[in-house]
Design brief:
single chain; 502 residues; mainly alpha; globular
Length: 502
């Protein structure tokens, strides 16, 4: 078996293992709700009118193929999205493999192998419970672009067709969130400095990427007017103020510490045989760190791009000093054991995080309130449509609607705007959007008439404040109070209160 055949076989084996693992996890709530909104979008749905979504529409375009898989392969939506993400990961790996062969010399196959296997680890296993998140997709789509930039510095030519595809992938990835521009901009600035030319960005892949972003931005202004005129002002006033984490919390997270450590180590190890590769990965890493530092929200899925690139750099730092021994075949069994132990020590944070995430997200944990809720609703006569009251998570109604084959009867999967309103009121600031947003909930109750409403009581206490009550607060609005009169208390499952429509 050749090295290429062995790599392909292992790649498909790991892809199968990933699919098996994901089948035993709950689908990320964010992914599930975005899939739901993608379905509405494909049917002509608009922001505000049909859904209150904080993300720009690029994710809808990227999730659209999931519906094709769902329809043509006759598989459920959860399996469809898992297969789809694995497929685009494999396509990205194929491009990266082609580019790594240009970057890494043939005799240094050991470095190339370590890099590519780490890449498979990063794409398929590192996201674990956040599989298919926007940050995960961004990392997958951006990696070929970063390696193409290395080829440009090394004066290695890339096939025009492949360069166009790499540019398209990068444009789709960067377009997912405005903060994703940071690594793109920093890498391009590095190339200008390295090449000593302001025109270094005039490459096929960068031109295609920039053109795609320009077309996409124009289409948002032309066809998604509500996002620009209504959603963006509300998001800027209420969303970002509510997601800020204290710096002490951000810098105490192991994932953030790992990224900063790897970025800092670059300055002690920037002179090596493949300095162009480590430099571009390092500047991309800095940009990805800024992408979650600027909004001050170091939630794990926000850190995924930086975490993934940090793993790639760490694998390079570990493997590069071993290269002379590999060339001369001087590695003994003892040396190999030392290398494995060293690798495990460096990767202890990513591996430990994967273990904890799998344990926390394991779908068959019988102590989980969500699992108990799913079991209860399966036997309930009121499961035809559901709506959820939560202030910080999409993990209540989604993926609940897929697991119980129900219908989400609302436009906002959670009240992301509510913490921002409470912060503004605490600071005695005017909140012009308050009545509009609360009345939008009342409109949903009146128009969709959800058969069942699930209220996250733990969320009230932990995220908002002690003694806070969703119903008491929202009922201060007369329109909501009138709409809520149609609901009566049914039961409580764990920290979920359930109401039904009468």
């Amino acid at each position: 078996m050749t090295k290429a055949t062995r790599f392909i076989a292992i790649t498909f084996l790991l892809a199968f293992v990933t699919f098996f693992c994901q089948k035993n996890l709950f689908l990320s709530g964010d992914v599930a709700v975005l899939l739901h909104e993608t379905g509405l979008f494909l049917k002509g749905g608009k922001y505000v009118t049909h859904f209150f979504e904080t993300n720009p529409p690029m994710i809808f375009y990227l999730y659209a193929p999931v519906y094709a898989l769902n329809q043509f392969l006759f598989i459920n939506m959860i399996s469809a999205v898992q297969i789809y993400i694995i497929l685009i990961a494999l396509v990205s790996v194929a491009f990266c493999c082609m580019l790594i062969k240009k970057i890494i010399k043939k005799e240094d196959y050991f470095i190339a192998n370590v890099f590519l296997y780490t890449l498979l680890f990063v794409f398929l296993f590192l996201p674990i419970g956040e599989f298919g998140q926007r940050e995960h997709i961004f990392l997958i789509l951006m990696m070929p672009y970063l390696l193409a930039a290395v080829c440009f510095v090394q004066n290695k030519k890339i096939n025009v067709f492949y360069a166009c595809l790499i540019g398209v992938m990068a444009g789709l990835g960067v377009g997912l969130k405005p903060y994703f521009l940071m690594p793109f901009i920093l890498v391009e600035i590095y190339l200008m400095i390295k090449k000593r030319s302001l025109w270094s960005w005039l490459r096929i892949e960068s031109i295609v990427c920039a053109s795609l972003l320009a077309i996409y931005l124009t289409s948002v202004f032309l066809f998604q007017e509500n996002y620009i005129k209504i959603m963006m002002p509300i998001i800027s006033r209420l969303y970002f103020s509510s997601i800020h984490e204290p710096w002490s919390i951000i810098f105490s997270k192991l994932t953030v510490v790992f990224c900063l450590f790897v970025a800092g180590y670059y300055f002690f190890y920037n002179k090596n045989k493949y300095s162009e590769l480590t430099a571009i990965l390092m500047w991309a890493l800095v940009g990805m760190i800024l992408a979650f530092m600027i909004p001050r929200a170091a939630w794990f899925y926000h850190v995924i791009p930086a975490f993934g690139v940090a793993c790639l750099l760490a694998s390079f730092y570990i493997s590069m000093p071993l290269l002379p021994y590999v060339h001369n075949k001087l590695l003994t069994k003892r040396d190999i054991c030392i290398c494995i132990v060293s690798g495990l020590l460096v990767f202890c944070i990513p591996l430990w995080h994967i273990y904890l995430s799998f344990e926390n997200h394991f779908a068959y944990n019988q102590k989980s309130s969500l699992v108990q809720l799913v079991k209860y609703i399966h036997t309930s006569p009121y499961k035809s449509s559901v709506y959820c009251f939560s202030a910080n998570t999409t993990g209540d109604c989604f993926p609940l609607v897929y697991l119980i084959q129900s219908y989400f009867a609302g436009r906002s999967p959670f009240f992301w705007w509510l913490p921002g309103i409470l912060i503004a009121e605490k600071n005695h600031l005017a909140v012009p959007d308050k009545d509009f947003l609360i009345e939008s909930v009342a409109d949903d109750l009146n128009s969709f008439q959800p058969a069942m409403i699930v209220i996250n009581k733990e969320n009230e206490k932990m995220i908002l404040k002690e003694g806070f009550n969703f119903i008491d607060y929202l009922s201060k609005n007369r329109k909501f109070l009138t709409a809520w009169k149609h609901y009566v208390y049914l039961t409580q499952i764990g920290h979920y209160q359930i109401f039904r429509r009468v």
